[in-house]
Amino acid sequence: MRDGPDGAVLLAIARAALLDEVLPNVPAGQVYAVRMIANAMAIAAREMTAEPEDDSGRVFSLYREAGMAQPAGEIERALAGDIRAGRFDGHEAALAALLEWQVDRRLALANPRLRKDG
Amino acid sequence: MDDAAVRRLGAWLGGTVREVRLLSGGAIQENFSLVLGREDGTEERLVLRRDAAATIEASRSRAEEFSLIRAARAAGVAVAEPVALCTDESVLGGPFFVMRFVAGVADPRRLVREDALIPDRAAFGEALGAELARIHAIRPPRPDLGFLGAPEADPAMARIRAYRRSLDALGAPQPAIEYVLRRLERARPRPAAITLVHGDYRIGNLMVADGRIAAVLDWEFSGWGDPDEDLGWLTARCWRFGREDREAGGVATREDFYRGYERESGRKVAGERAPYWEAMAAIRWAIIALQQGERYRGEEKPGLEAALSGRMAPQLVQEAMAVVREIGDA
After folding, report:
1. Considering only CB atoms, which chain B residues are within 8 Å of A102?
2. Residue A82's Cα: distance from chain center in Å?
3. Per CATH, which fold does B108-324 belong to?
4. Arithmetic mean of pLDDT over chain B
5. HSE on the CB side for B113, CA within 13 Å?
């Protein structure tokens, strides 16, 4: 156990202090750097609190739908390899839906403003 | 650059070098501005370009870039006048070249935002097209550009293969990027006639003065290829710097850009090919972002901008997936 607030909350408070108290007094040439720092802090805080994502169920059903044997070993690597080899060529709609979901999950952490329904 | 290096540089250039200043250089090359004083009392402002420590993607050597700039100048492209190439490593520890200084603004955010820098955006859009058309007038075979090798018969496939190699080198599987590359593989266009392709023709690599293109910069990714690739790189959403309504680099309309290109080249732009190369552009940028995001591993004091780059990849992949949907199979 640690004393509160926890790491993500601490980052959020520090970020607010940076933007509200430090940024207004920063010379114009360094505004961009401060904004980058604030962005890095926001990403780190989101990644710290995010629930681990397990998309293996979605990948398995895609393989089933495509009539392919279930991937063995590292699932993402198998999926990437099968896409490159053209094994999903006839199943693009289902594949694209899964991949869009994966990209959306990454955007939710990296840049939630750019999510389509965000 | 230490004092001894500056003295050696002056001796090599036949004068005295003053006011050496590191310009905002790229990750791959360093650019210095310097003033060369000559014995007759005249002064000249020059730019020196040499390799930086980090190299992201295989790019042209300084000697090759110097030849490309010379060829471009001869073709009527706006470039800084090349002055001298030095391959003698005893001067600065590595090859470099020197060109005449060109005044202007290259900062893309300013060029996108400040209308005072580009008062006539329609004329500028046409100039963007005309300048690129002059680059594309350089065609193989060219003995002076022999280092570019033989043109690829299928430039799109060559790109796809190169990006797959980059992904393999990065190591982490990227199914969404693989999907876009597979779609691009299946939808390959019949290549336009092979020309010189600048390879990084966008706002940020153009020096702008008095609302005009004063110089096309950064020839390190140039090679023989499909000229439509350069068109798609400039109009890709990821190079509009937030002004998505101005489809040509965030500074002009697509129509003005194409009009200028067509007038200068005499070649009609195949607008239906734009999504193909714009998807390719987003994927290329996504892979570069992932590569930059990995740079921290080898660095004692990693830069924040590079460290954050990898987190840009999802938005670029999202963009590529949206664009690639507009393309049918070939």
Report:
1. 175-176
2. 23
3. Aminoglycoside 3'-phosphotransferase; Chain: A, domain 2 (3.90.1200)
4. 93
5. 6
Residues of chain B with CATH 3.30.200.20: 3-100
Contact B17, B34 (CB under 8 A): yes
- Best interface-test mutation with B: which of A103, A106, A116 has the largest number of B CBs within 10 A? A103
How much of chain B, in percent, has pLDDT values that exceed 90? 81
Reduced 3-state DSSP string for B244-260? CCCCECCCECHHHHHHH
Helix axes B227-235, B254-265, angle to 10 degrees: 160
Instruction: Look up the CATH architecture of domain B3-100.
Output: 2-Layer Sandwich (3.30)
Chain-chain contact of A103 with B312 (C-beta, under 8 angstroms): no
- CA dihedral angle for residue A95, residue A97, residue A103, residue A107, rounded to 10 degrees: 180
State pLDDT tens for residues B255-285. 999 999 999 999 999 888 899 999 999 999 9
Nearby residues of B119 by Cβ (< 8 Å), 6 or more positions away: B211
The predicted pLDDT at position B183 comes to: 97
pLDDT at B57: 53
> Model confidence over A33-88: pLDDT tens digits?
999 999 999 999 999 999 888 889 999 999 999 999 999 889 999 999 999 999 99
Q: Which residue of A has its CA nearest to B179?
A: A83
pLDDT at position A118 is 47
Cβ–Cβ pairs < 8 A, chains A and B: 74
Q: Among all residues of chain A, which has the CA nearest to that of B161?
A: A84
Residues of B in contact with A83 (CB under 8 A): 175, 178-179, 182
Residue burial B81-94, b: 16+ Cβ < 10 Å; e: rest: ebbebbeeeebbee
* Amino acid B55: pLDDT: 52
Contact B315 A114 (CB under 8 A): yes
Complex-level ipTM beyond the 0.90 threshold: yes
Interface test with A, best of B161, B178, B292, B296 (most A CBs within 10 A): B178
Selected residue of A46, A56, A84 to mutate for chain B interface (largest B Cβ count, 10 A) = A84
